[in-house]
Design goal:
single chain; about 900 residues; alpha/beta; Aminopeptidase; Rossmann fold; 7-stranded mixed sheet; 25 helices; about 25% strand
């Protein structure tokens, strides 16, 4: 078999991907290799006669050597092939092939072939998705295909992908063609398929009815042996109807994997790290769909451990399995009163409607203990350990469809894929509240050895990303449970107006101050109820409080100095809250969490519990977070950005010609910056470099008076307040004087050597100067920032951030988030400026940055927003080869 030519492009390792299929199982996708000849022949021979005919339009029992060579020897540019492979006893077996052959600069012919035994699992659609991404990377714009009319399955793959497919029939052959640039519909189809596949893969773990526990040996007394024995005991105690088998678990009957009766849905594995991949491979014939790995000793242990983890994932994903762990505390799930306790929690929490996710085992211990102390019930709990595979994103996909979960809580030590997290969390937050605590303000505090991309983004970027997604962010696990319990047991607040019940004026004032700090408005009724008030007075006070139409939420505080609980007050509060549906929190009588004393049933038979907090501040903070989420959910989140005349395809084509082979960052000259921005409809007012007064006057004569004069010294650039910019220069005399003064001013600074010291530019309409930037971050991808030019942004950090993709509402909020933004809206008699034009400009920058990962940086400075329009007076940009993933569905491979 011939090899690829020596000068062929390098193997595109970035196209390798582990993916979840429609049925919740997994497979691996990678580029074709010349060494795949035997595997491809085996794949072809195993196909049915019908499948072979549909692919080749002829009955071919075997591929000839020449045809086989043509199929496996590709150049990864004009001839590209991807294969889906399965791990069968340690050998890769091809189960699907997708390829394209370029016809011309724009078009390529595409073909697919999926193994008969694996059709219906979504292989065709995921192969098309990855092949399209590879083709776009190589500059292909359109796929064409010739398909037999009876090959309805393949025609459906193209149409159902969300592309606009053109079709015609000639001589009994259906000719198809479609542009492969993503559309709103194709992106929505991809996201929906990803959601359903990942949700199903998690559901198979949490609803497993047959489990095998694999330990290190029947006589093993090490930690892994104790882990295996502990989880086996918890499984047996959780559900007597669960089918449980044990292999090499201390204290259990001797059994080997070959003796296990299949099929088995879930495996719990606690073995030495070197043995894990082999155990997972041996589990594959049993039909196992997921493995909870309690063992440690993988990526967190350095390079050797990282390689063990990669091998583990190669085996697991190639065998169709998901991995929870390594270092997992396990998972537990309630279904219909039965408990799957595949965890190390000997005393599990009670059943409820909160789903919790965390990573490390120690944090799992703390979270579950806190939930038990508060009486908080859980629907599911998953500890991802070191999160090699199953992550919070997967659980959010599942919880979006889970009728048994009303509130989601996540403790995240890192966010490995913020762009996907934002997309998944935003979808879930529109259905259910998502409460998140991150380890550190950047969300990237991780143990050594974890393959997490670095970030140079300001810490505020994470906060903005979470806000855009509608996530309720809290500072610690205590607050996570505080907020979760009010969201799970009370209706969402209808507003922020707060009514207060307290035993003293001082306490009421403290609650009002806390409410204001939490974003609530203390304008509701304040009722003072002495701690020794008789029952009739208590009832009247509660009625007065809850019948007040000016209140949206209620905070009740009773901290007696002497005496004990007041059961009348407890009953009246819980009954009134249930009767009115008014969101309520209390701090009283040493009650904490979810209690029987504060539970009531409304007229419809529904149970309502008013959550109790240790301090008024805790309750008010939780209430404020709930009100903020309710407001986010009630507001239209807007539509995807589609600025008129934006042509990012042309932008990609331009940038492709400017990139260097060495991957270095290329600073674009003004002409290239202008050309790039023009592709998305942004015009830059040209500036003319000059060295002296004569050149300045000549430039002004060409441009037309009045003009602006600017220094190119970086310390004075854009700084009219420091004398580096002179505006409204009306004639030659004034211009010559300004040139002399600006050059003298610049003598105290280092002047640039690569361009003239001065620039002359046409005057823009008067308005406010703003700065719009985009930076490509290794972790977050593109980050858009906006601020008003000058000291507000440069010295005080008054900059607002957004993480694309953005909607029109996101852009409007971005502009208004800057503290100096009132200057744009008529502050203190200033004219109201054309904010709509500014938002349109930012939208164009956001679309360009989102669609063009090669755009490393872009700065528009200044952008002058006037009463009519927004004008870009200066622009800088740099580009480099992209590091960002292409957006296709893929699992972690490290």
């Amino acid at each position: 078999m011939a090899d690829v030519a020596d000068d062929a492009p390098a193997y595109p390792a970035g196209w390798e991907a582990d993916v979840v299929l429609h049925d919740g199982s997994t497979t691996r996708i990678r580029p074709m290799l010349p060494t795949d000849a035997d595997a491809l022949q085996a794949f072809h021979v195993a196909q049915s006669e019908r499948s072979t005919y549909l692919r080749f339009f002829a009955a071919l029992e075997r591929l000839s050597d020449r045809e086989l060579q043509r199929l496996v020897v590709v150049d990864h540019v004009d001839r590209v092939a991807l294969v889906a492979v399965a791990d069968v006893g340690g050998t890769e077996q091809i189960i699907g092939v997708a390829r394209y052959d370029r016809i011309d600069d724009d078009d390529a012919e595409v073909a697919f072939n999926v193994a008969d035994a694996h059709q219906g699992r979504g292989l065709g659609s995921v192969l098309l998705e990855h092949l399209s991404a590879a083709a776009r990377e190589r500059g292909v714009r359109r796929f064409v295909a010739e398909v037999l009319p009876q090959n309805g399955r393949m025609i459906a793959v193209f149409r159902e992908a969300g592309y606009v497919v053109r079709q015609r029939t000639e001589d009994g052959i259906v000719a198809l063609s479609f542009d492969i640039d993503p559309t709103d519909r194709s992106l929505a189809v991809m996201a929906d398929r990803e959601h359903r596949a990942e949700a199903r893969s998690v559901r198979q773990l949490l609803e497993a009815r047959s489990v095998v526990v694999v330990g290190p040996g029947a006589d093993d007394a090490t930690l892994v042996g104790r882990l295996a024995a502990a989880v086996l005991g918890d499984l047996r105690a959780g559900d007597p109807d669960l089918v449980i088998q044990a292999v090499s678990v201390p204290g259990a009957a001797a059994l080997s994997l070959v003796d296990v009766l299949g099929p088995v849905e879930l495996a719990i594995v606690a073995v030495p790290p070197d043995a894990a991949a082999g155990v997972v491979r041996d589990l594959a014939p049993l039909g196992v769909r997921g493995v909870v790995l309690l063992s440690t000793g993988f990526a967190e242990d350095g390079p050797e451990g990282l390689e063990r983890q990669r091998e583990l994932l190669r085996v697991a994903h190639g065998s169709g399995m998901r991995i929870v762990g390594p270092g997992s505390y396990g998972l537990l799930a309630y279904r219909g009163g039965s408990l799957l306790n595949a965890s190390l929690a000997q005393v599990p929490p009670i059943e409820g409607r909160i789903g919790l996710f965390c990573q490390s085992a120690p944090m799992a211990v703390a979270l579950l203990a806190a939930a038990r102390r508060r009486g908080i019930g859980l629907s599911e709990f998953v500890s991802a350990g070191h999160r090699a595979d199953v992550s919070g994103n997967d659980l959010m996909q599942f919880w979006a469809d889970d009728d048994g979960t009303d509130v989601v809580g996540l403790y995240l030590e890192s966010i490995g894929n913020p762009r996907k997290f934002t997309r998944v969390a935003r979808r879930l937050s529109q259905l259910k509240p998502v409460v998140v605590v991150t380890a550190g303000r950047s969300g990237q505090v991780v143990p050594p050895g974890h393959a997490v991309r670095a970030t140079h983004a300001p810490p505020r970027t994470l906060a903005e990303m979470l806000r855009q997604a509608g996530v309720v962010r809290v500072d610690n696990t205590h607050q996570l449970l505080d907020v979760a319990q009010v969201l799970a047991h009370q209706p969402l607040p209808s507003g922020r107006r707060t009514s207060i019940l307290a035993s003293s004026a001082a306490t009421a004032a403290l609650v009002a101050e806390a409410a204001t700090s939490a974003g609530l408005v203390a304008t509701g009724r304040v009722v003072l109820l002495p701690e020794d008030a008789p029952a009739d007075q208590v009832r009247l006070a509660i009625a007065e409080l809850y019948d007040d139409p000016e209140g949206d939420v209620v905070v009740a505080v009773r901290i007696p100095t002497v005496g004990g609980p007041d059961p009348v007050l407890q009953a009246e509060i819980s009954t009134a809250a249930a009767r009115t549906g008014r969101t309520t929190v209390v701090c009283m009588d040493e009650l904490h969490g979810v209690t029987a004393e504060l539970t009531a049933v409304d007229d419809a038979g529904r149970t309502w519990t008013v959550p109790a907090y240790s301090t008024p501040e805790d309750g008010v903070l939780a209430l404020g977070r709930a009100a903020r989420y309710a407001q986010w959910r009630s507001v239209d989140r807007g539509l995807p950005l589609h600025p008129s005349d934006a042509d990012t395809r042309t932008a990609r084509s331009l940038v492709a010609g400017w990139l260097t082979q060495d991957g270095n960052v290329v600073a674009l000259d003004p002409a290239r910056v202008a050309a790039l921005l023009a592709t998305v409809g942004i015009e830059v007012v040209p500036s003319h470099g000059v060295h002296d007064a004569d050149e300045a006057v000549a430039a002004a004569e060409r441009i037309g008076w009045p003009v602006a004069l600017k220094t190119t010294v970086s310390a004075l650039r854009h700084r009219a307040d420091l004398g580096g910019v002179r505006l409204d220069i009306a004639d030659e005399v004034e211009l010559r004087a300004d040139v002399r003064e600006v050059l003298q001013l610049a003598e105290a600074f280092d002047s640039p050597t690569d361009r003239p010291p001065l620039e002359v530019q046409a005057m823009a309409p008067h308005g406010s100067a703003c700065v719009v930037r985009s930076v490509e971050d290794p972790l977050f991808g593109p980050i858009i920032s906006f601020g008003l030019a000058g000291d507000a942004s440069e010295l005080l950090g008054d900059v607002a951030y957004g993480v694309p993709p953005l909607t029109d509402v996101d852009v409007a909020e971005l502009v208004r988030s800057a503290r100096a933004a009132p200057r744009l809206f008529g502050y203190r008699g200033l004219p109201v400026l054309d904010v709509g034009a500014l938002e349109d400009l930012i939208a164009r920058v956001a679309v360009l940055a989102d669609d063009l990962p090669e755009l490393r940086s872009l700065e528009l400075n200044p952008v002058v927003v006037s009463e009519r329009g927004a004008v870009v007076l200066g622009a800088r940009a740099s580009v480099a080869r992209a590091d960002r993933a292409d957006g296709t569905r893929r699992l972690s491979s490290t």
